[in-house]
Amino acid sequence: GWVKIVEVGPRDGLQNEKTLVPTEVKIHLIDMLSEAGLPVIEATSFVSPEWVPQMADQVEVMKGINRRPGVSYPVLTPNLKGFQAAVKAGAAEVAIFGAASELFSKKNINCSVDESLQRFEEVTKAAKEAGVRVRGYVSCVLGCPYEGQVSPDKVAQVAKRLYSMGCYEISLGDTIGVGTPGGMAELLEAVSREVPVDALAVHCHDTYGQALANILIALQMGISVVDSSVAGLGGCPYAQGASGNVATEDVVYMLHGLGIQTGVDLPKLMDAGAFICRSLNRKTSSKVAQATCKL
Amino acid sequence: SGEVRVNVVEWGSGFLMSVQDGASAGKTLPERVKIVEVGPRDGLQNEKTVVPSEVKIHLIDMLSEAGLSVIEATSFVSPKWVPQMADQVEVMMGIHRRPGVSYPVLTPNLKGFLAAVNAGAAEVAIFGAASELFSKKNINCSVDESLQRFEVVTKAAKEAGVPVRGYVSCVLGCPYEGKVSPDKVAQVAKRLYSMGCYEISLGDTIGVGTPGGMTEMLQAVSREVPVNALAVHCHDTYGQALANILIALQMGISVVDSSVAGLGGCPYAQGASGNVATEDVVYMLHGLGIQTGVDLPKLMDAGAFICRSLNKKTSSKVAQATCKL
Questions:
Q1: How close, in Å, is residue B253 to chain A by CA atoms?
Q2: Considering only CB atoms, which chain A residues are within 8 Å of B286?
Q3: Which residue out of B6, B15, B16 would a mutagenesis test of the A interface target, given it has the greatest number of A Cβ atoms within 10 Å?
Q4: Where are the beta strands (DSSP E) in B151-190?
Q5: Which residues in B205-229 are b (16+ Cβ under 10 Å) and which e?
Q6: Where does the Pyruvate carboxyltransferase domain start and stop, copy by copy (chain A) (predicted)?
Q7: Are B255 and B226 in contact (CB under 8 A)?
Q8: What is the residue-wise DSSP string for B231-250?
Q9: Which residue, among B165, B195, B199, B168, has the nearest Cα to B182 in the 3D structure?
Q10: Pairing state of beta strands A4-7 and B70-71?
């Protein structure tokens, strides 16, 4: 009964918040999350600051964080250039983002899915030589804001490509949060025919309130790695005002209630959530945090 | 073949059911789920703002139009205790009753029951608790005393040909007692069922439950009450409601209580949410291929209406995701 939580708040979360926070705040957040016992904390992104200004302080953040032994701090790398900059800045693990939808790939990174995978193969090749682990992400696994329905077989193909090129783990992202447990079960059946289930993770968005139910069914199907974001940081770029990432506090609450271990200290996690919400001047999106806030 | 083998995997204090042999988890779920809409009573009763009778009536009418088959309309608890429901008679007389739709009302005792029937109620609800302390604090008597009081109601209801729905509060935890024993819940549910309630709604009153606890509780209760006479009433205070509902469906439950727009905060945690939003439940059920009879756009119209009247934001994520920008 163990689930690994991949905390994406400092990167996926902060990248999708309206307010920009200073470097010191990012560093302190990551340090607090390390203290809370999270084993994997997505630290920053080496996408060009031209595209993602929120992550312009990528090198500073990597150098500034207090790395806790046994904790991994992966960073996003869209291409070989980003990879090299990441390694130079001290990254020991990187992440690459593919999509299960052609339109989404075109709109997001201006190339087809196949072209993006070719680009990523350069990264995984270099990463292998450098002894750096690579995590693969697939977006739009349960629906696309442009294409609508997405075929589970397409997702399986993309996941298989990422796994074959050397990714140790594939995170399946319900990017717009439209998925429901039946769709999740169907998806996981298709993907687990191509990639071993213990190399799969789910990255559920809570835009339609379905995240915990989707995570539960994923657990029932053998998934044991779950992505989430402290305080539910990171709204949905496709539905203004709507929520995005599922809140780590709420995931941990469910897992602990199920008797599943995570290594996470929930009160310390909630402290980290309270800190970043103060810094962003926003209310938490975590229900657990809302329920236990001081009156 | 449609056959699905189910393993119970024990994990610590709770357990999950893992579906094997590659079958879709969807095959273990009911084809149809009845939604019991509690927004106009449970929801509005627990909102800070009090709305005029016309608004309540219009809300109920919109919910009827949205295809809900059970809509909890009001409460015949004394207005002394629940002033928000003081217009109980007006509401009962004012709503447009859609054929095939039931409009149950709360009745704490015989007096309330008689007033309810007098006002046209054709179904009533009684509320027990699985926690002694909660019973004492809420209705100033022990669980046993409350059940005796209810027996007077169910007897009269039987004579009058009025169905009675029983509720059990605090089934997964109590704000005063903390942990609640599944066997205690089962005993109370059994008493309510034996005295004539056609259905027992099991309420996670403070929303602390998680799927393992839900499973454990339902196993205990379904040993005493047939599963098709059981319903779940999950609160989303800790964000666990849909996961708890999903596991309840997997265990054969096919009746789910919810509240339009997630009306009704938690009286025990200021600022926290309470009832799960009907829109979010319907979204999940329809996504699972389960029929509910509910027209989601019309339901969302009802939610938007009541939120405007209450001057508050919806607690439904589906409504937030699809709101006009």
A1: 16
A2: 180
A3: B16
A4: 164-169
A5: bbbbbbbbbbbbbbebbbebbeeeb
A6: 3-270
A7: no
A8: EEEEB-TTS-HHHHHHHHHH
A9: B168
A10: unpaired
Task: Spell out which residues of chain B touch residue A189, defining contact as CB-CB under 8 Å.
Answer: 22, 24
Residues A172 and A152: their CA atoms lie apart, in Å, by 11
Contact B288 A222 (CB under 8 A): no
Q: What pLDDT is attached to residue B325?
A: 35
- pLDDT confidence of residue A274: 97
Torsion angles phi and psi, residue A99, rounded to 5: -135, 155
Contact B237 A183 (CB under 8 A): no
Q: Which residue of B has its CA nearest to A176?
A: B321
Whether residues A209 and B322 touch (CB distance < 8 A) is answered with no
Answer yes or no: do B247 and A216 touch at CB < 8 A.
yes
Average pLDDT over residues B154-173: 98
Cβ atoms within 10 Å, residue A241:
11
Predicted confidence at residue A293, as pLDDT, reads: 61
Measured in whole angstroms, the distance separating CA B301 from the mean position of its chain's CA atoms is 21
Dihedral over Cα of B13, B17, B20, B26: its sign = negative
* B139 pLDDT more than 90: no
Residues B62-116 have pLDDT tens digits of 999 999 999 999 999 998 989 999 999 999 999 999 999 999 999 999 999 999 9
**Helices A266-280 and A23-35, interaxial angle, to 10°?**
170
Mutation choice for A interface testing from B240, B250, B266 by most A CBs within 10 A: B240
Instruction: Dump strand ranges (E) for chain A.
Output: 4-7, 40-41, 44-45, 75-76, 93-99, 133-139, 169-174, 200-204, 225-228
Measure the CA–CA gap between B149 and B154, rounded to whole angstroms: 9
Q: Which residues of B have a catalytic role annotated? A: 266
Of A208, A220, A291, the CB nearest to B16: A220
Using CB atoms, pick whichever of A186, A258, A291 lies closest to residue B211: A258
* CB atoms B236 and A212 under 8 Å: no
Partner residue facing A212 (CB), from B212, B240, B316: B240
Q: Which residues pair with B235 in a beta bridge?
A: B275
Q: Which residues of A are catalytic?
A: 236
Q: Is the pLDDT of residue B152 over 90?
A: yes
On whether the CB atoms of residues B279 and B261 are closer than 8 A, the answer is: yes
A3-7, A87-91, B1-5, B277-281: the lowest-pLDDT one:
B1-5
Asked if B243 and A215 come within 8 Å (Cβ–Cβ), the reply is yes
A213 vs B237, B238, B243: nearest CB:
B243
Confidence (pLDDT) at B25: 44
User: Is the predicted pLDDT of residue A150 greater than 60, yes or no?
Assistant: yes
